[in-house]
Design a protein that fits this description.
Blueprint: E1 2-15, E2 18-23, E3 26-32, H1 39-51, E4 55-56, E5 62-64, E6 73-78, H2 100-118, E7 123-124, E8 131-146
Parallel strand pairs: 3-6, 6-7
Antiparallel strand pairs: 1-2, 1-3, 1-8, 4-5
Helix pairs in contact: 1-2
Length: about 150
């Protein structure tokens, strides 16, 4: 599972001209699922996300997780293009992206686990929909995480 995490001042998702979801300050998370992903990958990423210290404390130091920022929100959007392979040629291959029969339940488990850890409702896009995503990246702070390439410290 591959995710792109952005610290935002605001973010929203529109589908066919209708606002589906929006948040103010918080995290915008794009999620790509591959066939090798497991519940362990979901657990790993969700635990990291709620503890990721990327919000400023009172001294302006990135020292707070989203769970300690009053009024913050999380918006999660599925994005199969995160699994793109650009190894050969100029047209990305999406062979590593899961089909909806596997990806949808994994995406839904990811959202449910993240919501349980965050303690507040998670806003989402609609899996497979043509979405228009708007966001104001704060910082900018953008972090890429891949559960298959866990960093060891």
């Amino acid at each position: 599972m591959r995710i792109v995490v952005q610290r935002v001042l605001s973010a929203s998702v529109d589908i066919a001209g209708v606002r589906k979801s929006e948040i103010g300050q918080g995290l915008m998370i794009f999620v790509g699922v591959c066939d090798e992903d497991t519940d362990e990958d979901i657990e790993y990423l969700c635990q990291k996300l709620v503890k990721l210290r990327i919000f400023d404390d009172s001294e302006g130091v990135m020292n707070l997780p989203v769970t300690e920022v009053p009024g913050s929100g999380i918006l999660v959007v599925s994005q199969f293009t995160l699994m793109a392979s650009t190894k050969k040629g100029n047209r990305p291959s999406y062979i590593h992206a899961s089909t909806p029969d596997f990806a949808v339940p994994m995406y839904e488990k990811f959202v449910a686990k993240l919501q349980a850890l965050f303690g507040h409702e998670i806003q989402t896009g609609t899996f497979g929909a043509d979405m228009q995503v708007s966001l104001v990246n704060d910082g900018p702070v953008t972090i890429i995480m891949d559960s298959q390439l866990r960093e060891r410290f």
